[in-house]
Amino acid sequence: MPFMIENLSSLAGRAISPLISPFKNRTKRPQKVKKILVVKIWATGEVLLTTPALRTLRRLFPNAEINYLTGIRSSPIIATNPNINRILTVDESIFISLNPIKIMQLMLDLRKQDYDLCILFHHSFAFALIFRIICSGILAGINRRGEGALLNYSTEYDETIHQADEYLNVVLSLGGKPEDKGLEIFLTEKVTNKVEKQLKDAGISEKYIVIAPGGGDNPKTKMPNKLMPINKWNALVQKLCSLSIPILIIGSKSDRKRARILASLSSNITDITGKTTIPEVSAVIKCSRLLITNDSLPLHISSAFKTPTIVIFGPTNPVRYGPYKNDNSIIISPRVKCAPCYRDGYLENCVRMICWEDIDPEEIMQFVKEKLNLVR
């Protein structure tokens, strides 16, 4: 159903765009911007990918008030970001279930704030229309489904560039200057100390390996096909256990079934899925010796800290969603012609998932040994 809605939105956007475009208020570079609203509702990893754009936006408008509208689940990843003055949270489900009363109330509340500039990090004509009504000032975003007709500043959707760069390009279109830094997570001393104590109390004093066998679960879409099959994770973890290095399994509550299967393989494995906050799991990844993960939030967290990382891709595009400016990472991806085939959380006409058949746990293990300097 969400895919159908997106397609209808796309068709409507392309049909309406030529009618709206001639009347759109195109302006030169924004002047005297005092109040800014940034919008990215769901997908915690993608919210993290907006942090380079946020940093550039703050440099461009150092004295402006920057508010960030995001979903309840995603807000912790940017809760302590100094480039944001205020985080506004919304229940993501009001957009997924299309609750007209709650959407209208949100629109009225935001409209009262009289923002000079709104930046929309969504590919949706419906969202562009909503925030065109909300934003009395300049609206900037990404043109994919005809949204450009509603935007004062827009960049074109481009699957050949990293998603973080796509977000950054929106701010560059406003006059921001490019930079070469990566993602940012700001951990408090309280969180770091808490995690260090918990690890010590659990008897994990030496450097450990973190594995993230789950993921692909956000309020908008459930994407189990993004995950390496559990039998391949099982084979990989058995090989990891032979290294006699402590292993931590991380993930959300929805990953517990997978985690229990893998945790049963050895007493050297500690399962903390569903037991940590996003800041806490970020600290766990930061302090680890190596992260092994599917295409999910942990890979972006590790990019923020330049943690040694092995990322396992199947049907998704590593160019688009892979580690961002983390030279300490290795990408494992299938060598089949049909991959990557994933688009907006959906696979089309895929029965066999041959991309995952091409992934070999033994090959992953060789890269693990390289990262741990265990190659003889």
TrEMBL record:
Keyword list, A-Z: Glycosyltransferase, Transferase
User: Which GO BP annotation is one of this protein's?
Assistant: lipopolysaccharide core region biosynthetic process
- Is-annotated flag, keyword Membrane? no
Q: Which GO terms describe its cellular component?
A: cytosol
Species in which this protein is naturally found: Candidatus Coatesbacteria bacterium 4484_99
Q: What name does UniProt use for this protein? A: Lipopolysaccharide heptosyltransferase II
Q: Provide any one GO MF term from the record.
A: ADP-heptose-lipopolysaccharide heptosyltransferase activity
Please give the Gene3D superfamilies that the UniProt record associates with this protein.
Glycogen Phosphorylase B (3.40.50.2000)
